[in-house]
Amino acid sequence: MTGAVTGTAAGTPAPGTGHPVGTIERWLAERVGEYVLRPPEEIDPTAAIAGYGMDSVYNLSLCGDIESEFGLEVDPTLVWEHPTIEAIAAHLRARMAG
């Protein structure tokens, strides 16, 4: 699976987040995979998750999962503004860092 931050080794916390690089992407792929009934290995972090059949109900549920897992309050428009796992993860890392 791709999507890790360049220049930081997997397992090393992303600067300012306390979460290892790649961990957020893997967690998101697992969540999306559960919603669309596909193994997480089949979820491309650079592809729009809408292409996997994620509808508005699943997107809102994913936002709730993110809030519970990472302790962040996210807007319900998160998935529309950041349509890929890679983009969502980058947004979450930036929020945690800052």
UniProtKB/TrEMBL annotation:
One of its GO terms (molecular function) is phosphopantetheine binding. SUPFAM superfamilies: ACP-like (SSF47336). SMART domains: PKS_PP, PKS_PP_betabranch. Keywords: Phosphopantetheine, Phosphoprotein. Pfam families: PP-binding. Residues 19-96 form the Carrier domain. Residues 1-21 are annotated as: Disordered. This is Acyl carrier protein. It comes from Bailinhaonella thermotolerans. The lineage of its organism: Bacteria, Bacillati, Actinomycetota, Actinomycetes, Streptosporangiales.
